[in-house]
Amino acid sequence: MTDTIQTDAVTTTEGTDAAPAEEFLHLDPADIIIGTNVRTDLRPDHKEFRKSIKERGVIEAVTVYRNDNGQYVLLRGQRRTVTAADVGTPTGLIPARVVPQPAETDRIGDQMVENIHRAGMRETEIVAGVEQLALLGVSAAQIAKRTSIDRPTVNAALAVTKADQTRNRLDSGDLTLEEAAIFAEFEHDPEAVERLEYAKRFRRSLTHEAQQLRDEVAEREADAAEVERLRGEGLPVLTAEEVAAADEVLRIERLLNAEGEPVPEEEWPSVPGARVHVVKEWVYPEDEYDESEDDTDDEADDEADDYEPAEPYQQYVPVWVVTDLDASGLRRRGGVSGGASSGSTADEDAGESEEEAEARREERRRVIAYNKAWASAETVRREWLAGFVARKTAPEGAEALICEAVVTGHHSLSKAMDHRHPMLFTLLGIPAPTGYYGAGQDECRKITTKATTPKAATMTTLAAVVAAWEATTGKHSWRNPSAWDARVLGALVEWGYQPSEVECILLGEEPEPDADTEGEANADEASDSAA
Description:
Radius of gyration: 33 Å
Shape: elongated
Strand content: 5-15%
Oligomer: single chain
Strand order of the largest sheet: 1-2-5-3-4
Number of helices: 23
Distance between the termini: 81 Å
Structural class: alpha+beta
């Protein structure tokens, strides 16, 4: 199919002999013969490019010539033409400039110049273009659709347009667009920016550092909300700032009155200077599984094998405390009236040297800090894995990892198979099937039927193996890393994942001490135990 838009005849100055005409047509890409081209890698799998062609068509005309049989042969625009023939366009046609057939030397030279000297848009130019569209009222989703720029890049560009200092750094080349989007998010917080600068300077992951900052903000906001809620009930609650400024924060329940007796609970609010400190304490749900209720049939045995205790969780607990021991009229157990550390009691320190006590406190600070770091890293890792499992082809080395998991029957994969791969469904963004003994079989089959080529089947199997491992990870992973943890995480690193400091423990690398992390841990230790 051919749609002739315009034909321009070019004549000589004498007006006698007409030079070969050039035409501008709209052609069916399937009718165009793909001529010889110096470019062989068309990158036809570029998702955003294919989407753009399908939704908006070919914007820049391709160049063709007519051969002796009157057929149109492609000179330039091979990638656009092949993709349009594959995915289609809104009109079914593409714009084409028809020129005289060039000499072979000219064809080769022109094709090389076109590709060698082609330059992509700079990130600052992308930001400027996105900003102009946004100012015209175009939404982020529509910008992504119109330009075929992926949504994360559009979101990053929009974030940078709202942060002047960060944008200046992007313009100067100091930051990439991905880095700039992270700095823009925290530009209002000098301490956060300082932590990001430290991470960038020492080549640590900005993505992980940013997630930790987000988690810390969310935690502080939740703490403050609980303080305000209890104050609304009339309790004299200490703020986080007041706790940090206090020399000591001592639980009344651990102190004695002038008679050497514990203070009755109902009298705690009457203690001079008594306040309430909101702490978070771990709750360990009771084990509801009762072995005495086991049936003898096979199904009951399988259910017992599948049973997992409920995960512990944290909850807020209001604790009555004093911050001035002398003014309260109370004393510590053992007769000491003041001067001891707020983080210790006579019961805790009995029979323990100062070195042992400090080692215990240091280990507690480490556990608190690393547990928080792991929770943040899990968010980042699973976001990365969600993109990874959506790949069309597996990376190099995937077959070896799959072989090891399947042949050795690794327990993480066996467990995932028994439960119909819930983490794989989560990473793919599909509602996970529930139940056992056949539940989810149809949903799993749908995933496999989409893998219609050997490459796709390999990638789907790799996704199942990696998701199975991810489902078994948790805060216990950094405490007791296994060889399989190191094997899988090491493979992910080779395939582009940048692990956080705490995740590197799985690879045998101990994180460097971090002053900010230790400070957070000290605050938590005070909240959990010293109060």
